[in-house]
Amino acid sequence: MSHIRVPTPLRPYTEGQGKLEVEAGTVGEALLELTTKFPSIGPHLYNEDGELRPYVNLFVNDQDVRTLDGEQTPIKEDDTLMILPSIAGGTI
Amino acid sequence: MTFTVPGPVMDEINGHGEKSYPEEGAGLILGLSEGEHREARQVLPMPNHFDSHKRGRRYRLDPQEILQAEERAEQLGLEVIGVFHSHPDHPSAPSQTDLDWAVPWYVYLITSIEKGAASETRAWRMLEDHSRMVEEILEIKDGDG
Question: What ipTM was assigned to the predicted interfaces of this complex?
Answer without folding.
Answer: 0.89
